[in-house]
Amino acid sequence: MIGVRSILILGAATLSALSAEFSSNSPVTFNKDVLPILERNCQGCHRPGQIAPMSFLTYDSTRPWAKAIKNAVALRKMPPWFADSQYGHFANDRSLKQTEIDTLVKWADTGAAQGDPKDAPSAVQWPKNGWTTQPDMVIKGMPYPVPAAPAKNVIEWVNVLTPGNFTKDTWVTSIEIRPTEYSVTHHLCSSFVPHRENATYNIPVWVDKQRDESGVEVPPSDRQLTVPTADGKGRVVAREGPPAGDGPGGIGIGFVCYVPGRSLHDFRPHHAALRVPAGYDVSWQLHYTPNGKEVTDIPELGLTTTDRAPERVMIESFGGGANPATFAIPPNDPNWAPEPSNIVFHEDAELVWLAPHMHLRGKDMTYTLIYPDGKSQVVLSVPHYDFNWQLGYELAEPIKVPKGSKLVVVAHYDNSANNKFNPDPTRTVYQGNMTWEEMFTPFFAVTVEKGVNPMKVVTIPFPAANGGA
Prior knowledge:
Structural class: alpha+beta
CATH topology of the largest domain: Jelly Rolls
Strand content: 25-35%
Largest sheet: 9 strands, mixed
Number of strands: 25
Radius of gyration: 25 Å
Number of helices: 5
CATH architecture of the largest domain: Sandwich
Number of domains: 3
Helix content: 10-25%
Distance between the termini: 76 Å
Oligomer: single chain
């Protein structure tokens, strides 16, 4: 005999099943179900003025891409996110939950309906002109003409100095670098350097390098610095290596980079800022990859500022990279590892951000923090690195790094035919600036207490051969 309580339980179960069936059969619409997902996870890139080639701000601009969205999210190609979820939690994690993937797939499979406009959430008020955050101050770089097809399809890294126009000491709370021509921009870097009386602005400076017919660098016995002249042929100044210190291309304070998938460097969540002294200039490092179309890029530097001194000071750096004397990836090697990068901390700090950088043969990178007592912690593992999306990973909570700790970074490269991005698995690959050469550059950022000398926070054993990105 079935009691009243059993009947109630069965009734509740039946209603629950019917509710689930009704929910699964209910229509999925753009306004009610899809748009909130796009706002949270996609519109940062998929809007006018940003890197993505299509906009997902409205139904009309999104509807033609419904099937493409389905395929990309089902394969987890989009949104790009490569951190292993076993290690660390990240504030900017853009990966989709399975329920969100299911919603987008169902929307595409059931006709991609628009739905009732009243169901749509309020539109995100994105900053104008493609900025991720609205800048208080914009510094324009020198317009740089990128030729359609230069010799060997190579444009060497270019260093330029521009006025900073800082009339007073300025606390900078975020830095964003934006190209105007994303399709040809490999990377843009900038930093703030002291003004010199003999400073020459908006004059590109680069290092001429000997290259073989395929564009691969042949290490020269003598490097030359080339400055363009009125006839366009250039003026050669004998010099070893790229500029350093406070010259064009030299790394000053606040060194940050734009690479695909990463442009904004925001210090505000960490109650930190960077002090730029009055009169400082901007040193730019520009790297373009021609695509067969002549364009002119005008890089921009957007800054947010504050009049109040911050609680902490932000320091961004890169972990030295590989020893150029030993960096040589053998032909057909699917899992080659360079010497690890060992970053030693001489001051207490808080680790807040990490960003692996390699080129087309990059396979994986792992950051491990080793404390003074010998305990270790993996703070970031990227098991499937993708050069097309060089993301920065912002820790959800800062990790305290006591003085005497080490940040050890290990990477692997796939120089085999199994790597579909590999330009040529039959040759030895050395460290170099171009995409078809290689780098091992683990970027990271920490905050420290005010008054700490930022130049004495860490020691990096091997300097990067070419300065970073």
